Amino acid sequence: MTRVHRVYFVPGLFGFAKLAGYDYFTHVRRGVEQRFAAAGVPVVCEDVPAPPTSSLRYRSRVLAGTVARTAGADGPIHLVGHSTGGLDSRLVLSPSANLGLDEPLLTWRSRVVTAISVNTPHYGTPVASYFATVSGTRVLYALSLFTVLSLTLGEPSLAIFSRVLAGLGGIDAILGGDYKLFSRITDNVLRFVDKDGREEISDFLGKVRVDQGAIVQIMPEAMDLFNAATENRPGVRYGSIASAAPPPRSLRMARRVRSPYTAFTAAMFSTLYQFAGQRPRVYPYAKPKARELELLRAGIEHEIDDGISDGIVPTLSMLWGELLWAGEADHLDVLGHFHDDREKSEHTDWITSGSRFTSQRFGALLDAIVGYQLRAT
User: Fold this and answer.
1) How is the beta sheet containing 237-244 ordered, strand by strand?
2) SS3 of residue 239 by DSSP
3) What is the CATH classification number for the domain harbouring 11?
4) Contact 240/320 with Cβ under 8 angstroms?
5) Is the CB of residue 135 less than 8 Å from the CB of residue 175?
6) Which of 29-38, 193-202, 265-274 has the highest mean pLDDT?
7) Is 221 helix (H, G, I), strand (E, B) or coil?
8) For 163-189, how does the pLDDT look when each residue is reduced to its tens digit (9 = 90+)?
């Protein structure tokens, strides 16, 4: 009898498991389950309820507790971490890490077969340095707010939000404002959400304001120490997904700016891309091997260097273990949150980045992930 595989999805920075009735990994889960079923292999997928911006150690403890509680007694385990979720996976698996947990909460690690990181800042990201500043903290909160709004409320509520945004002075007022202004926006928009969803979103945003431990930990300087101290676990196969979004000056993005909301997110993306593209002077990213460079060039249309990113994470910072897929996409496109013109599409774009991500590319990405998981067993 074929053993049941267990796949754990670990959210990253300003990510979540489920919020206001919305499943953050819904598109990835559906694709993974379909591919396992097609291969005749039983699978159970689980979300890890990691806090959005807490320290990597704290998030890793949540990951360990979730797997220990739900993994059963046997069967292969696969970790799929998006963004900082990939660092949580590396940390919890590392033989050299001290998470302060009792051994019974970690015995499941011997069953882990693959650890796949999706757009993870293995060598850090300059955006973290920006988020640690006063103005960057405002942008981090705004980014968290609009990620939640775009994914959980959907297009009709975004139209409402566009009117609210215009009434409060537009993008300049937001980026130059303070938390009182964000609070006004949040309160105005959440009036259209049911009570339970409203409380969940408010609690999520409160966690972002109160605990931002992960921000300083994913700076390139801090990741230099993380990589020196965090060993790969013997017997686990490490794979990675990498992408790059087109530079914001691209006319493709400009053509999609059709409302206050898209204008705001386009400007936000441009700001983030600028900081993510700051080239490292002391702490370099990964240097692609020949095969990695071939994959990157095949999937990304512009020059491969340390100035390209998905808007949050530099592309060359995403390389760890075996590169499984590379292509043009922004930070959340790779989870299925992308602009899709199909009439019956269930995908909702999170930010106006100008990427040309499609359902076909998303399918190829999922093929790479599941193929790697099944190949390893």
Assistant:
1) 43-47, 5-10, 77-82, 112-118, 237-244, 322-328
2) strand
3) 3.40.50
4) yes
5) yes
6) 29-38
7) helix
8) 555 554 555 555 555 556 666 666 666
